[in-house]
Amino acid sequence: MDIEANIKRYREELGSEITLVAISKTKPGSDIMIAYNAGQRIFGENKIQELSDKWEALPKDIEWHMVGHVQRNKVKYMAPFVQLVHAVDSLKLLKEINKEARKNDRIINCLLQIKIAREETKFGLELEEAKEILSSDAVLKFKNVKLIGLMGMATYTDDTEQVKAEFLKLKTAFDDLKKDNKEFTTLSMGMSGDYQIAVECGSNMVRIGSSIFGER
Ligand SMILES: *Cc1c(COP(=O)(O)O)cnc(C)c1O
After folding, report:
1. Does residue 65 have its Cβ closer than 6 Å to ligand 1?
2. Ligand 1 centroid vs 136 CA: distance in angstroms?
3. Chain centre to alpha carbon of residue 174
4. Domain 3-208: which CATH class?
């Protein structure tokens, strides 16, 4: 893989309106540095241990996103530096992030993960549950987290019509929730295999791993 060329190609293709999160999970720091030297500053990981090891080792102007499922007992390891948590799927988790963010005197941006795929294995909230969280009294008291949007993963399938329907469902939910949530700015959807459909459906943040860094 020509990581440098891939970064440049994606940045050009996506333009300035769509944020590219380069998903570097399982890849070594040397690969990340090739992307960094090509101008990329936002990287995503799906395991907190790996995320914090890489944060310690690599340049401090990298913006680190946690894109995977978060275990509550590990939030403390990312709280000092994480810039965006993509997959918040419960009020309990949000409470923990708020607590650890406060200890670090930070405000941590979060997205609620909505379940749009058919697969049972995928995490995420039903839209109604997300609405409940957003309108709960508890959330209003969390001063150290900011809910800035939604994230979703489509079903892993060749059926592009199905993928499109799932992304459109998420986009509709995002637009709907944005009316009452003024801090909503970010819709994280699309990966290597489906980002073009996601962008067509209104994504403004894509998470691309294997087609930048190679197969894992
Ligand atoms: C691994 C991962 C990606 C990137 O997947 P690719 O298919 O390699 O682009 C995106 N989002 C999440 C949540 C991931 O875990």
Report:
1. no
2. 30
3. 15
4. alpha beta
| Domain spans in the chain, listed from the N-terminal domain onward | 3-208
Nearest protein CA to atom 12 of ligand 1, as residue: 67
Distance, CA of 203 to CA of 160 (rounded, Å):
16
22 Cβ below 6 A of ligand 1: no
Q: What mean pLDDT comes out for the span 11-19?
A: 97
Q: How far is the CA of 172 from the centre of ligand 1 (A)?
A: 22
DSSP 12-71: HHHTTTSEEEEE-TT--HHHHHHHHHTT--EEEES-HHHHHHHHHHS-TT-EEEE-S---
For the stretch 166-185, pLDDT in tens is 999 999 999 999 999 999 99
pLDDT at 178: 96
Contact 108, 151 (CB under 8 A): no
What is the spatial distance between Cα 44 and Cα 47, in angstroms, rounded to a whole number? 9
Most informative mutation of 31, 113, 191 for ligand 1 (most atoms within 8 A of CB): 191
The reported pTM is 0.97
Q: Which atom of ligand 1 is nearest to the CA of 21?
A: 10
Q: What is the pLDDT of residues 105-140, one digit of tens each?
A: 999 999 999 999 987 766 899 999 999 999 999 999
